[in-house]
Please model this.
Amino acid sequence: MKKGRYPVLEIRNMRKYYSAGIGWIFGREIIKAVDDVSLTIAQGETVGLVGESGCGKSTFGRTVLLLERPTSGQVWFDGTKLTGLSHRQLRLLRKHMQIVFQDSMSSFDTRFTIAEIIGEPLLNYEKLSKEAFKERIKKVLDAVELDETFMGRYPGQLSGGQRQRVGIARALILNPRLIILDEPMSSLDVSVQAQILNLLKKLKLRYGLAYLFISHDLRAVEFLSDRIAVMYMGRVVEILPKRSINMPIHPYSRLLLSSVPVKHPCLRTNKPIYETQKSEKENTWISIPWQGAGCAFRFRCPYVIKKCSEERPELLHINGEHQVACFNLSSQRRIIDGTN
Amino acid sequence: MSKYKTVTVISFIVLTVMAVMVIGAPLFTAKDPTGVELTKTLRQPGQGNLLGTDEMGRDIWTRLLYGGRVSLSVGVASVAVSTVLGVAYGAISGYAGGWVDRVLMRIIDALLCLPSMLIMLVIQSMTRPSLTNVVLVIGFTTWMQMSRLVRTEVLSLKEREFVLAALAAGTPVWKIILRHLVPHCSPTIIVMATVGVGHAILSETSLSFLGLGIPPHQPSLGNMLIGGQNQILAGAWWIPVFPGAMIISTVLAITFASDGLQHILMLRNAGIEEGVKKWLKISKEAA
Model:
């Protein structure tokens, strides 16, 4: 959070655990989807959240809006503690925070027309005449660069990009202060992704929106975000300001960055993609020790030291806004100096 | 497929014709369904009475129309009762989930264990027989199947993202159930309800046949059957045969129609007309 800016959303030590397994005979395994995450988003700020599939990004986004109740931790929105509010009180505050879903098709009721889909949140909070209702929908369609002929259509008749615009329009119509973007572009092709990104940036500047931008596309996150949080196995391992996106410190962030294709052949190096110690099969196997004490990344980390399996690294400020959760910082720095 | 289509179309035609005749009964007969004429008892079909007369000289054709009216309306009304009850119960149970769902479903299991005919008989023998009573008794003993189906559908539907989206949009839970979940179950509900009408008509006739349904002075298909059973040995075959044929053809037509309806509803995407069109096209291709 930049100094002097008012935090619109504050998450303190949020945990969301799921239990999986056959039941009381064989015992249940606890899956820690979100494990002790704290994050602050300022007014008008965009925080990017990146991480591999299944690391808990989407769960985090949903739990922030309390669509799923967190196991523990607090969510503060604009000075109000959301966790602990009743459903009724929460419903009144939902007006100010909206979400755009990953799969635009399944997030719409296929029996509703576009006007009904966009208008649903509006009708939940305001009583409007038919003309005023239509006017509002026209306005918001205009904001997402769709014309009003779309109002009577069904979601199945739209292309992916158009549907995602409708999804954004639905989130915008109540003039929220915060929008959670839950991988809004993963189901789109590249040129449409660029259009949606530009649109999101434009809307952010026009309405002063704060975004929590969840994605696994580092380049998209870089384009839109002011700060980037890197998540691994339900934990935030690094928070870095936009200007240091190319110089991450945590070994996992470096792994993520090295997997992004290089734009120009001249920039290509012959160095292999930053390798991890163990094979893919072992990496994807989630078991209890992964989420026990110690750093979650220690099984894949090439710079693992003894302390990593004994204690859990906390996020530490290393340079202004830059925070890293790693014990073996010195080795990281040396490597960065070597490559850059 | 082609045969299938023919059967469905015929069923729909049969049902429409029956509905028109039964609703507009006074247009098709000038006689009184309860008018006793002791000079004209047990007449054979044809002689001044289209389908003959019964042992009290009442015109069978007229009684068939008015009796069909009673039986069909009992069928439709009791299904309306059981549908409302079953959908509400099932949707609440499915949406709530967890232990609420478990308790509600065990109650249904318990109710399903009791033979519904027995319950109907017990309740009917305790209350005065009347049309409303029959409707309520049939409605309240047949809603469990509907409720189970709706509950299963809601259980899978509520995991879909659009429910989450509605929740995030601030839609209250009752509105999510009414506007999102129940409409998505409508194919199942419609098909179940149509099958239910057939069953309800059968239940009504059985109750009336046992003398516990529609009061005897009112014509109904079941009442006509019980009246006819004593006259078969006297050679008056026409008294039970026509209401019997009416019951069979109605229930069969409803069953086949609901089968076809299920197909149409499965094919439907945006509207019912589209489903009908697609269905006709597929049938034609298969032929």
